[in-house]
Amino acid sequence: MAAVELDGIVRRFGDTTAVAEVSLATERNDFLVLLGPSGCGKTTLLRMIAGLLEPTEGRILVDGRDVTALPPRERDLAMVFQNYALYPHLSVERNLGFGLSVRRTGKEELRRRVDDVADLLDLGPLLRRRPKELSGGQRQRVALGRAMVREPEAFLMDEPLSNLDAKLRASTRTRLISLHRRLDTTFVYVTHDQIDAMTMATKVAVLDQGRIEQFGTPVDIYDRPATAFVAGFMGAPPMNLLPAELGTGPDSRLVLRAAGLELSLPHRGDPGVPDVLLGIRPEHLVPAADGELRGRVDIVENLGSEEVAEVLVGDARVSVRGPRPLELTPGAAATFTVRAEHIHLFGRQSGRRLTWEPAPAPALVS
């Protein structure tokens, strides 16, 4: 199936730039998730891929074919909307086949495709019902099925699970993963939910203010966030970010100092950037009697198999997550340890990730 490529896409609304110089490319059969907070430009970007909005600048290619100037019906892309956009006066069966009937598909072929999709999505018993007689999850499956019967080059989905409750959302997410594998088709999926991105995507583009902050696999984005924004957006709770100073000790080893923390890093050299943001994921802070991070426990939340604690460290609040029980008491002093490989550093001004070489004389670069 088709690969989707965006080349320097810009979209302006008057003096407002909603999408700024976005370039990315999927491989065939990727599950690409456009992820970011409300207003970051992800839906605008999806609508431009679909042909519902025209880019101010740039090109859109589908399987190497420039479709920038083509109307939606000529792009061979199927879109699933957030509100499902079903025809309320038509049965499920007629909703599924509507797009094919408009294209004057033969009756036998239309019937075959509708039956195949109904079987795949377990819609057989619902074919005679109308949308008002369906649950939210059933409507979502009908909307997906209506796109599937067209057998498009790629599927475009605009937050299709946002109207579902938590349990139904989880089961539908699993169904989408299975469908993607069975259909062997490219999906481009918009969401603000990082769980959707982590569980379903083969590639994730994290957007903020119309720009791509990071593009890569879910594992890369979670384990090595490129910016402080990505670090603070991914994770539940998100990564702790603390202002810190990076300097050198008597043995030229790098030393990291923050409120309630002094940590020697296994690297030597000129830090280059003294003012940094220290990033530590909540699951990487482990209670320890001789830990490097010192604070006072404020709140402990029971999540069943896990607990999340909020710890006051100087003027900052730090989240700690681990298997229950963490054995932390609200109001009590506590110390935590973190392994050096779980330390993330970002330039305090640039917000960009700092990296260093594992050479005998490392140097940080912004």
Description:
- The chain has 366 residues and is of the alpha+beta class.
- It folds into two domains: 4-225, Rossmann fold (3-Layer(aba) Sandwich); 240-347, Beta Barrel (OB fold (Dihydrolipoamide Acetyltransferase, E2P)), CATH 2.40.50.
- It is 23% helix and 34% strand.
- It has eight helices and 20 strands.
- The chain has a six-stranded mixed beta sheet with strand order 6-7-8-3-9-10, sandwiched between helices. A five-stranded antiparallel beta sheet has the order 13-12-11-14-20.
- α2 (92-102) packs across α3 and α2 runs parallel beside α4 (136-148).
- The model is unreliable at 357-366 (pLDDT under 50).
Comma- or semicolon-separated keywords:
366 residues; alpha+beta; Rossmann fold; OB fold (Dihydrolipoamide Acetyltransferase, E2P); six-stranded mixed β-sheet; five-stranded antiparallel β-sheet; 8 helices; elongated; disordered C terminus
